[in-house]
Amino acid sequence: MAADGDLEMEDVNLNMGRDTKGELEEEKEMQEDWRSKDRFKNKKVHRVVSKWMLPEKVRRTYLERANCFPPPIFIISISLAELAVFIYYAVWKPQEQWITLDTGILESPFIYSPEKREQAWRFISYMLVHAGVQHILGNLVMQLVLGIPLEMVHKGLRVGLVYLAGVIAGSLASSIFDPLRYLVGASGGVYALMGGYFMNVLVNFREMIPAFGIVRLLIIILIIMSDMGFALYRRFFVPADGSPVSFAAHIAGGFAGMSIGYTVFSCFDKALLKDPRFWMAIAAYFACVLFAVFFNIFLSPAN
């Protein structure tokens, strides 16, 4: 009887061991299924991104090493900072109306002001302040829609380089061509991203699927026209009690993007620092920066 009891216990233990192993195998299979589904979804996203951002000859390379690590932190962080500053001036520093902010933001320590050019941080920090709802929504939508895919492909360091090059070019150009005007908004950085992407699509038009290429160019042109229209209104048709804002940053940011941005975004599968086009663009950019600094110190009407 004792022997029979021992046999029954052994059978039960064996069955329990088999059940446990079966459950573990089922869990592993489920985890593998979930992973394969996630990989499929990720590959699908990366495939769409590669079609919009890269010429055909380098898409395979991107898809082979595509991942979301690191995630597009730069564009998201910049967008959140700009939104936070806008909410601060619209809510905690309430204006008479905040559809289009006016005199309140002119007292901000971030805005580019001709009278306070010695505060060098203003040549960059002006990108955090926006003139109204239309202004910030346009910039946020464009830099998120275009910036996130660009950062997925080229990563934050390269996208940040292009974005900040556009921001600095915008403020320096405004200080030369519109020296007595205030400057707000991230349009210089946004236009740098658009300029770099525009040139990449234009140069690789045949490889980036003609139909998609035409759509992309039309979308970019439409956005530029609408944004420039708002900037021109703020510059030349602002009400008498308002404050006109410079729009030179849009143009300068676009040129920065079409030079530095194009070389950066066209070097996806190459070492950027070994590309002579990059150094030519950097040299031209710094020559313009040095001239702008000289102008601001010795020749500016705002002195």
Which features characterize this protein?
globular, 303 residues, serine protease, mainly alpha, 9 helices
Instruction: Based on Cα principal axes, name the global outline.
Output: globular
Q: What summary fits the major beta sheet?
A: none
Which structural class do the helices and strands define?
Answer: mainly alpha
Computed over alpha carbons, the radius of gyration is 27 Å
Unreliable runs, pLDDT <50, ≥5 residues?
32-40
User: Gap between N and C termini, in Å?
Assistant: 108 Å
Q: Please tally the helical runs, counting DSSP H or I stretches of 4 or more residues.
A: 9
Please, what is the average pLDDT? 79
Strand content: under 5%
| DSSP strand count | 0
Task: Give me the strand/helix succession.
Answer: HHHHHHHHH
State the share of residues found in helices, binned by percent: over 70%
Transmembrane segments: 69-91, 123-148, 160-177, 183-202, 214-233, 245-265, 277-299
EC number: 3.4.21.105
Subcellular location: Membrane
InterPro entries: Peptidase_S54_rhomboid_dom, Peptidase_S54_rhomboid_met, Rhomboid-like_sf, Rhomboid_IM_Serine_Proteases
